[in-house]
Amino acid sequence: MNQPIGSETSLISFARLQLFIGGTWTDGSSAVREPVINPATGETLGMLPHASKRDLQAAIDAAGKAFATWSVTPAVERRRILMEAARLLRERSALISRIITLEEGKPLAESVTELSAAIDVFEWYAEETRRLYGRVIPGRSQGVMQIVHNEPVGPVAAFTPWNFPALTPARKIAGALAAGCSLIIKPAEETPATCIELVRACADAGLPPGVLNLVFGVPAAVSEFLIGSPIIRKVTFTGSIPVGKHLAQLSALHGLKRCTLELGGHAPVLVFDDADVERAAEVCAAGRFRNAGQVCVAPSRFYVQSGAYEQFTRRFVECAQTLVLGDGLDTRTTMGPLASQRRLEAMECFMEDVIAGGARLLTGGARVDRPGFFWAPTVLADVPDDALPVREEIFGPIAPIVPFGSLQDGLARANALPFGLAAFAFTSSPSTTDAVSRGLSAGMVGINHLAVSLAEAPFGGMKESGYGSEGGTEGLSAYLATKFVTRLST
User: Fold this and answer.
1) How far apart are CA 20 and CA 186, in angstroms?
2) Who contacts 255 (Cβ-Cβ below 8 Å, separation ≥6)?
3) Catalytic amino acids?
4) Distance, CA of 259 to chain centre
5) d(CA 431, CA 419)
6) Per-residue pLDDT reduced to its tens digit, 318-338
7) How many CB atoms lie within 10 A of CB 219?
8) Contact present, 194 and 50 (Cβ < 8 Å)
9) Residue 125 · residue 173 · CB < 8 Å
10) Could you give the CA distance from residue 166 to residue 145 in angstroms, rounded to a whole number?
11) Confidence of residue 367 (pLDDT cuts 50, 70, 90)
């Protein structure tokens, strides 16, 4: 049973922020440091070292060397190490959950849930190592053997954002290691300590030196250096659409490296008249304001059929108004801060545009006057289709609610944007369920609930929300190359 971990113990982790290269924890050879800020207080938690080009090259060399042995390590041994890493993460969960809340801001209960999901990912991929099957294809003539092999694609460069500092790195680390790839991961500099603890667990579990390397630095400089190396054979990135497009271009220019890109989303929700409207509003409000709206698959633009519109909007506002804002370590808190001052400024831009366009502000709509980066849960009604919060990813606690008429009208509005990550619908009609299942243009569709992120299921989008999947057998396949071998017996 885990014992409560005090804040002093958690803060020790921020006093030892380091790179991990070739199996060694190091401050690196650069003098550059940047502060890691607690978004609930604005206070500095620690100073993060940046990797120099020499450090990055050392990580590349270590990953290249380690790939030669890790790629042929038996699957049962890779499984053992991943399972041991999962056990260590569970053993250390009280500490790591507090670290997530300190550097990212989400309520502690959400951090506990996120870390549990990350551990689930490690365990699922560990078990899946034993199912990296190829196949035998019957030959067309006697004596011909035809075999399909799956082989690890090569050393991987991985880049992750700040909003889920445990779950997103876990998908990339566990997937790559299970497939037999070595990895260099660059997490977000805003939330480094959580990924450091994931890497520490892998190292303590017996992962050979160089198989997993951890670096930090200016994102553009690090990504260009890593992707430019011929040793790196795959790139996996979670983040914004513009950055994803840029990394895809770099990957094409430098050896046509394979990519998995999980990019931005702006998930539509269709609520039909025949839905359980009260429950739909409660579920949608909880999803919209989870992690202060900083969730790529969160429901974020709400299209409600005219007969349910008033009831849904009323209940949604009631849910928003019950949220308790505060430091995520306070057990009374149900919504934490935004990640940074930049996010507050972005919320102000959304509000200025939407109010000028004629939308009705029902609750919230402004910063909260307290230390940290807090924005009041905001609900907007009668939002025009051309308003900024409808057209662009919000990534904050603002909920635009729009009425719609027919099924065709709802689908047209939901599919109108270039995003295609997640989409949701609430209905009690089997025919409507079938229609939205087929009609919504998104990589993940949830009907009557929001649970689209599971270790055993593919996680990824379509259109400008990226390509490739993490999670499920599809996520493991992303780190494998297919080889066809045919031989004639002599």
Assistant:
1) 11
2) 230, 233
3) 262, 296
4) 16
5) 25
6) 999 999 999 999 999 999 999
7) 15
8) no
9) no
10) 44
11) very high
**Strands annotated E in 233-314:** 234-238, 258-262, 267-271, 299-305
Of residues 202, 176, 3, the one with CA closest to residue 83: 202
User: What are the structure tokens assigned to 346, written together?
Assistant: 């972005």
Question: What DSSP state is assigned to residue 487?
Answer: E
* Residue 451 phi, psi (nearest 5): -80, 85
Least confident window among 8-22, 46-60, 370-384: 8-22
**Range 465-485 burial, b when 16+ CB lie within 10 A, else e:** bbbbbbbbeebbbbbbeeeee
CATH superfamily of 267-454: Aldehyde Dehydrogenase; Chain A, domain 2 (3.40.309.10)
Residue 395 has pLDDT above 70, yes or no: yes
Match domain 7-263+464-485 to its CATH number in 3.30.43.10, 3.40.50.720, 3.40.605.10, 3.40.50.300.
3.40.605.10
Q: Cα separation of 86 and 80, whole Å?
A: 10
Cα end-to-end span (Å), the chain: 62
pLDDT at res. 384: 95
Q: Is the pLDDT of residue 3 over 60?
A: no
Domain with CATH 3.40.605.10 in the chain: 7-263+464-485
What gap in Å lies between CA 263 and CA 466, rounded to an integer? 5
**Residue 408 and residue 439: Cα distance in Å, rounded?**
9
| pLDDT tens figures, 145-166 | 999 999 999 999 999 999 999 9
Burial class (CB in 10 A: 0-12, 13-18, 19+), 2: exposed
Q: Give the pLDDT confidence score for residue 295 in this predicted structure.
A: 97
Triad 249, 251, 256: Cα angle to 5°: 110
CB 335 within 8 A of CB 292: yes
- Rounded CA gap, 74 and 100, in Å? 33
Q: Which of 469, 455, 459 is nearest to 125 (CA)?
A: 455
- CATH 3.40.309.10 residue ranges for the chain: 267-454
Tell which residue, 24, 37, 14, 26, has the closest CA to residue 339.
37
pLDDT in tens, 51-85: 999 999 999 999 999 999 999 999 999 999 999 99
SS3 per-residue string spanning 49-87: ECCCHHHHHHHHHHHHHHHHHHCCCCHHHHHHHHHHHHH
How far apart, in whole angstroms, are the C-alpha atoms of residue 433 and residue 270?
A: 11
Token code pair at residue 133: 């099957």
Beta carbons within 10 angstroms of residue 73's beta carbon? 17
Distance in angstroms (rounded) separating the CA atoms of residues 200 and 23: 10
Is the confidence at residue 479, as pLDDT, over 50?
yes
